[in-house]
Design brief:
Length: about 260
């Protein structure tokens, strides 16, 4: 049986046009009146499959996730040249940090640079500090270091941005930045990312529980977006395993290594 989150509904796939997200972060809903499943970020490319009553049924390019977004959150796509490589940044009216800010952007948001000065990159949305951007094709080397950019970010079910993120959103952001394909939900990640391993924990291993995932930092430490701290935080692995099981959420269900 196909996963409706990854397989477009043939009854709704009446068109196919390219679009991109035009707001800092947009909720991706299971249905127009339903819950948020995930989020998509400014500049991320989507395929619009159906539109009605102010809603667009879309499929996200980054992971194939399907769902509904508000039509007003979409725009005509532009070819991205860079992406935000810091936890968050602002686009300013001019190449001046004292000028009014126009837009806030989260880590990973693709943008189109049309001109550059010494300190700023000009985009259609405004001027962004050059040091906050990386070329769109640059791949980072260490998922755990990328995850650390989100330390302190509030926990948000289905969240994918610096303003709120959940466990699978954190892992996806970290792995995609390093060029490692990664779906959006933890149980999908448990089935498809890397390969199962036994033995010692190595940096960037993934640990899974029922409905939860964490990223290994070193042999004793992991980083995860968690409801216990209601934020992205470091936690001792042994302590976390004991705490999660004592809370009734069961033992570790998988230990996987991306890239294996």
């Amino acid at each position: 049986m196909s996963d409706p989150r990854l397989t477009p509904d043939p009854a709704l796939a009446s068109q196919s046009r390219a679009a991109q997200v035009a707001v800092p972060v947009a909720d991706l809903f299971r249905r127009p009146d339903g819950p948020r499943d995930r989020q998509v970020l400014f500049g991320e490319p989507l395929t619009v499959l159906h539109e009605a009553s102010g809603w667009a049924y879309v499929q996200a390019e980054k992971d194939g996730y399907c769902g509904y977004v508000l039509q007003r959150a979409l725009s005509i796509p532009r070819k991205a040249t860079h992406r935000v490589c810091v936890p968050a940044t602002h686009a300013y009216t001019s190449a001046d940090l004292k000028s009014p800010d126009l837009l806030s952007l989260s880590f990973g948001s693709p943008v189109t640079v049309i001109a550059e000065t010494k300190d700023f990159a000009e985009t259609p949305q405004g001027h962004i500090p050059r040091g906050h951007l990386a070329p769109i094709d640059r791949q980072e080397a260490d998922p755990a270091q990328i995850a650390a950019l989100f330390l302190g970010t509030p926990y948000l079910w289905g969240g994918n941005s610096r303003w709120g993120i959940d466990c699978s959103g954190l892992v996806q952001a970290a792995l995609l930045a390093c060029g490692i394909p990664c779906p959006g939900d933890s149980h999908q990640q448990e089935r498809t990312v890397g390969a199962p391993v036994d033995g010692d924990y190595q940096p960037n291993d993934l640990l899974f529980w029922k409905g939860h995932v964490a990223l290994v930092v070193d042999a004793e430490t992991m980083i995860h977006a968690n409801a216990h701290a209601m934020a992205v935080s470091y936690e001792n692995i042994t302590d976390a395993i004991a705490r999660i099981e004592a809370a009734g959420d069961g033992p570790v269900t998988a230990h996987r290594r991306p890239g294996v």
